[in-house]
Amino acid sequence: MAGKGGLTKLDVGVLSAEQQEKLREFKIKTRIDNERYLRSHPEVEILIGNFLRDVLLERPTDIQEFAAEHFTNPNLQVVISSKMDRKIGTE
């Protein structure tokens, strides 16, 4: 079944019970690993939040171009570091 964007919806019913259990365990492990990574890198939340805030404020017509400009801004590291310092100062 083709989904939005050409992605195919997976039919896990074709997997054996053992395969389904391994898939379930893999998904859980992946979520835990992702959570650990994000907790050890709080700057990711600030990067994404800053980007979304700017998108919603500016509402660009070409989101890909806007994202490219946003994430290649030479001052981005300074902006994020400043926000990190403020966040750490409020905790």
Automatic annotation (TrEMBL):
<protein>
    <submittedName>
        <fullName>RIIa domain-containing protein 1</fullName>
    </submittedName>
</protein>
<dbReference type="InterPro" id="IPR059162">
    <property type="entry name" value="RIIAD1"/>
</dbReference>
